[in-house]
Amino acid sequence: MYEIVGLGKCTQMNDGCQWRKYGQKIAKGNPCPRAYYRCTLSPTCPVRKQVQRCSDDMSILITTYEGNHNHPLPLSATAMASTTSAAASMLHSQSSTSQPALPTSLTAPTASLSTSTTHLHALSFNFSQNPTPSHHYHFPNSSISTLNSHPTVTLDLTAPPPPHNNYPSYFSRFSNLPTSSSSSSSSSSSSSCLHWKKTSSHLTFGGPLNNYPAIRQSPPYMQITNHQALSETLTAAATKAITSNPSFCSALAAALTSFVGNNGGGGGTASELGFASSSYLQGKQPSSMVNPHQQQKQGSLLLFPPSNTASDPPAD
DNA sequence: CGTCTTTGACCGGCGC
DNA sequence: GCGCCGGTCAAAGACG
Known about the structure:
N-terminal domain of TfIIb; 3-stranded antiparallel beta sheet; 21% strand; globular; disordered N terminus; DNA-binding; WRKY_dom; nucleus; transcription regulation; WRKY_plant
C-alpha cells in the first residue's frame, strides 16, 4: 500500500526488490504499526523486511532486513549491488589502513556521489559525551547515496566485517547510547548528536544488497588510483548528506535503541538482529548460540525520513 | 480474475 | 504456569 520510494502496488524500493506485505503489528513502545514484507522475486526467497515509523519522528521510516536473497536480482538491484561491492571494496582497502574516524560525526570515504549511489565500507560515529571519552561507533559496509536528490546513508548490518579488520565491537558500544525516548529526542541539543540542516533527504540504515549471493561472489576490488582524494570527497559528501537530515539524531537513537537496545535492558524485539550483529562485530559466528532459524537472520536497518514522493508508511 | 493489502487470530519465545 | 509481545498465517476485501 505504501511505498518508500515510489512505484506500484507491489512495493518496490530503490533496492530493486519487490516486496509483498504479509502482516502488520503494533509494536510496544511505538504507536505506529510495524509492517512485515517478504521478497516476492522468488517464492522461496527467505528475505523479509520490517517497516516501521520512527516513534520520535513520525516522518521517518525504519526498515529492517532479514535473511539473504537466494535468487538473481533484477537489473536495478544488480546495478546497485555492483556499486555497493565496488565502493565497499574501495573502502575496504582504505579502512585497512586504520584510518581514524572523524572526530565530529562520521567518517566516510568516497567518490563522486553524482552517480547516485556510493557505498562505503563503513561509517564511524563519534558521540562526544564530555567529560567522558567520546564513544566511537562503527558501521561496516555502509553507504551514502543521493537518489533523486535524496541523500542516503546506508549502514549495512547484515554482513560481517572483513576478517582483517579489527573493528571495535561497534554494536556492543551502542549500549552506551541513551535508551530512553526522551534522551533520543533531546539528543538534538546534545553534544553527543549530529546537527542537521533541513532539506529533503533520504536516510537509510542498512540494506539488503550485500546479502545477494551475486554480490558476495563478485570480485571484491575496484581500481582506485587516488584513495586519499576519494576519501576526502566522500567524507565531505557523506557529511553533507547526513547533516542535511534534521531528524537523523532522533532517528538514529531510536533505531539503534530498538535495534540493540536490548543490550541495555530495552525492549527485546531486536534481540535476534542485535545479537547476530554483535556477534559478527566481534568476529564470531553466532551459529553456536542461535537456532537454525535465527541463523538465517541477519539484520540491517534503514531509516526513511520524509520524502516528497513517498506515500504513507504503515497507517497510524 | 488474479494479485495484493488488510486485519484478526494463532503460535512461539521470553520474562515474571 | 501465565501473560505479554513479536512474528506469521490466512480469510476477506480492494484494486487494476
